[in-house]
Amino acid sequence: MSVVRLTVRDWIRDARRIAVLTGAGMSAESGVPTFREAQTGLWAQFNPQELATEAAFRAHPQRVWDWYAHRRNMIAAVEPNAGHAALARFAHANPGRLTLITQNVDGLHQRAGHAHTWALHGHIAQDQWLDTPRACCDVDALESGRPPRCPTCGNLRRPAVVWFGEQLPVQALEAAEAAVRACDLMLVVGTSGEVYPAAGLAFTAHQSGARVVIINPEPTPLDVVAELRLPEPAAVCLPAILT
Ligand code: APR
């Protein structure tokens, strides 16, 4: 095993509190294409950043709904990988030591058995109302369609994910901030570090005195706060350092 891996393994063993932030690269080896990867087939003509917004949904509800349906189908067909499993195993074996924060909406950490996962960007498998629900808005009486709607007022269902320009769920963000301030080691796995406030968590951990370790085959803007970088795929690296 490389010296860097051995060092990180020692840090994990010695850390009292570990915070882990994951991004799309965490699920790459499960077969979920990362958000910024080229889209394929029908969707190649669209930029994801132009589909994942409230304005796009209001302008083209069927198009955006269908894109999410495509992503939901893709995610339903894949399995958690060895990296998800290693994190879940470690958390189970070390209660209270590891806080998992994810930007992923795919639910793969949860499916791997990671009971407490702070999902900063929501859950793709779930829906919610687009506009504040009125008395007539009843999820058990939806008019089917793409998207489904309230038959009385027309309020639309939308994926329960955080779109560009939207606020993150307050409880999850506060829990994530508290965890990175309190940790002595932070692992940042498979994120491009481009999207805030999630990316800012690595800076907060660093400023609070924690060691930051980045697991990502590619360089990222978060490397400036990394004490060590493991330029490896998550599903290979995590099982090696968490055992
Ligand atoms: N293991 C680890 N990292 C990987 C792997 C892998 N097997 N494969 C790719 N990566 C890295 C890439 O090098 C890249 O830095 O994962 C990162 C994926 O970056 P993004 O696609 O930008 O994903 P993410 O950082 O999660 O995006 C943040 O932005 O698109 C929105 O809301 C969406 O949650 C998402 C957020």
- Based on CA inertia axes, which overall geometry fits? elongated
Uncertain stretches of 5 or more adjacent residues:
none
- The CATH class assignment of the domain at 1-31 and 80-121 and 167-243 is Alpha Beta
| CATH architect. name of the domain at 1-31 and 80-121 and 167-243 | 3-Layer(aba) Sandwich
Radius of gyration over C-alpha positions, nearest whole angstrom:
19 Å
Number of helices, counting only DSSP H or I runs of 4 residues or more: 9
Strand arrangement, major sheet: 3-2-1-6-7-8
SSE blueprint and pairings:
Elements (H helix, E strand, L loop, with lengths): L2 H12 L3 E5 L25 H4 L2 H6 L1 H16 L5 H12 L4 E5 L5 H4 L5 E3 L2 E8 L27 E5 L8 H13 L2 E5 L10 H8 L3 E5 L12 E3 L3 H8 L2
Parallel strand pairs: 1-2, 1-6, 2-3, 6-7, 7-8
Antiparallel strand pairs: 4-5
Bound molecules: adenosine-5-diphosphoribose.
Which features does this protein show?
single chain, 243 residues, alpha/beta, two-stranded antiparallel ribbon, 9 helices, binds adenosine-5-diphosphoribose
Summary of the model, kept short:
By secondary structure, the chain is of the alpha/beta class. The chain has helices at residues 3-14, 48-51, 54-59, 61-76, 82-93, 108-111, 170-182, 200-207, 234-241; strands at 18-22, 98-102, 117-119, 122-129, 157-161, 185-189, 211-215, 228-230. The protein contains 9 helices and 8 strands.
